[in-house]
Structure formats: C-alpha cells, structure tokens
Amino acid sequence: MRILVTGGAGFIGSNFIRNLLANESECTVVNLDKLTYAGNLENLADVEKDPRYHFVKGSICDVELVDKLLGTKFDALVNFAAESHVDRSIQNATAFVETNVLGTQTLLEACRRHRVPRMVQVSTDEVYGSIGPTGRFTEESPLAPNSPYAASKAAADLLAGAYFRTYGLPVIITRSSNNYGPYQFPEKVIPLFITNALADEPLPLYGDGLHVRDWLHVQDHCQALAVILREGRPGETYNIAGNCERANIDVARLILRALGKPESLIAHVTDRLGHDRRYALDTGKLERELGWRPRIVFEVGLQETVRWYESHEAWWRRVKDGEYREYYHKTYKDLSSFSPQFH
Ligand code: NAD
Ligand code: TYD
Q: Is 289 a catalytic residue?
C-alpha cells in the first residue's frame, strides 16, 4: 500500500507514520508537510532512513504540487495537516482558513482528479461545539463550532461530505477528542503543563479550571485511524474518544503529583475567549462497526507521557527555544532545492 500522509511531521501524524511503518511491512509512506512552527522532523528521526519513507516539504494549499504528487498514484491519503491550536486561531484565524479549509479542498480536488481510492480527513470533536454537563455527541449531532479553529475544521468536514455526495469521492471523516502522548508540541495543555512543571514554572490554568476534555492517548487514536483506513465505510464519519473525561484542574494536579511538584505551581489566569466548557463523544458507532476500543487508561498513559517528557528534555527544550527548526536544514539540506524522489 502506498500512502500519502499530509502533516506527518506534527504530533499525531508522526506517531501515525511510525506505527504504520512498524506494523505494515508492505507499506510505503510519503509525508507532505509544510514544516510550520508545529512541524518537526526530529519527531521522525528514527524512520528517516527507512527506504519505505519519503519526505516532501510543501503545503497542502499548493495546487500544482499536490496535483503532481497525487499523480504518482497512491492507494490512500490521510490528512493531518492543519493549524491546530485554538489560542492561535483566536489571535489570527487567517492561516486556519487557508490550511484547514482551502488546503483540505485542494486535497479533495486532487484526490477526485486522480481517483485516489480512499481519503481520511482527520477532524476533531470541537466541530460539535460545547455540550452541557450530561450527554455525548454522536456523528448525527449538528455542527456548532465556536472557535475559529473549530469553524475551519467544520468547514473542511462539510467540504469532504460535499465531495462524497457530489462526486462519490471515497472520503471518510474522523472526529477525535483531545489527544496526549509523546511528541506533542508544548503549546497544548498537557505537554505545556508537564514541561513548565519540570522547569518549576507556573501552570497557567484558564478560568476556574473546571472545563472538561475527553482524553485519548495518541496510540489509541492512531490505532483507530489504521482500522478506519482499512475497513471504514466511505462517506461515513466516525467519532474517536478515550471515554475519559477530566477537568483541567484535575489534569494539572495529576501532572504535579507525578512529578512530585507542589500544587502552588497552579496559576489561575484569565479565561480563553469563548472557551468551550465540555466535550464528550459517543463512540458506539466505531465500536459496533469496526470493533475499536481505547486501550490506554488515562492515569497510566499520563504517567508514561510525563516520563517521556522527563527523558526527552533536549527535545522539548529545543522545541520551546525554536531550535528544532535547524534540524531540517542540517538533515535535509540536499533537498532544499526541492526535487522530491517519490516512487
Ligand atoms: P500539529 O499542530 O502537531 O501538526 C500539524 C502538522 O501539519 C505540522 O507538522 C505542520 O507543519 C503541518 N502543516 C500545517 N499547515 C500545513 C500545510 N499548509 N501544508 C502541509 N502541512 C502543514 O497537529 P496535531 O495535534 O498532530 O493534529 C493533527 C490533526 O489532528 C489536525 O488536523 C487536528 O485538527 C486534528 N486533531 C488534533 C487533536 C489533538 O488533540 N491534537 C484532536 C483531534 C483532532
Ligand atoms: P488545549 O490543549 O489548547 O486543547 P483544546 O483547546 O483544543 O481542547 O486546551 C485543553 C484545555 O486546557 C482547554 O480547556 C483549555 C485549557 N488550557 C489551560 O487551562 N491553560 C493553557 O495554558 C492551555 C494551553 C489550555
């Protein structure tokens, strides 16, 4: 199987590529990534010499490049490429609309032109908006995004649905809850809190800290995506979640306890604008149809994640200092003129 992964240098995409290469010996992966601030080739340093793996630097918004690439025949495309941080979208939504909406439409169009047999659009639970203290969103729940990030992802989902209905493009949408695990950029709450705590710096907790997220380990997410890629039904949407709701303040306390740091490091700060109170997903469809279930218990996965950041201090310090960007230039300087050899 020859798979194009877009956004594979980020958190979830890099975990997905590593798993794919480890589990599917017959598989070839091309990773198309723009290497924004969130794209880090160090995340894939252990597979970069694998002959089944190829990296192409470029944007999913580049119509010519995407068309040329998809013209080289792929069995599937999995789209992770996105601007992914809510706080950044509140500062400036432009890049979110460009990549998440126009970029996804560029991929859909190229998949249609080149008759790619399968596309997976990796989306988020945030497209449903915030839910009250009880209940869970199903795949049939209406889209009601609140942040510019969530709105741009919802727009991409609607375009994917339109390409399925209008052209019969075999696209599948996945909507996952909040992920955590190794290689997550330390702007997201869990790695931010872990790395701040390791440096004895305050953990900035928004508002009252009682906002609830449903945590999913990135390995469980990647496993769900692999099953959906193989057996999911085109035109369908699948919710993916850990069924593991925690309030932010409890997550902060767990992290501090795991590191033996005092709770006095928690600093209540001004709330995020339009902050969604609670996300919760019903994952019954994925369980019934494809037999997937999350395996990693949050408290165990979080402990392991804390240990991973503890033992990868050089990685997160380079990320926080912005020095990780030099890795690309050192490692890929031969490709800087861009002549991708993708077979
Ligand atoms: P991330 O920010 O860590 O990585 C995004 C990657 O996309 C980076 O490597 C970046 O360089 C690349 N990228 C950005 N713009 C691009 C463009 N125009 N062309 C090509 N590459 C581009 O994000 P993540 O947390 O790994 O999330 C991956 C996907 O999963 C996103 O679509 C996100 O919406 C979705 N998602 C994330 C979570 C989560 O908790 N992290 C939860 C649900 C869904
Ligand atoms: P985040 O990791 O940004 O993911 P999302 O907004 O996509 O759910 O935030 C997770 C939760 O943590 C969210 O309720 C906002 C909160 N949060 C903080 O309290 N402090 C922070 O510094 C950040 C980044 C997030």
A: no
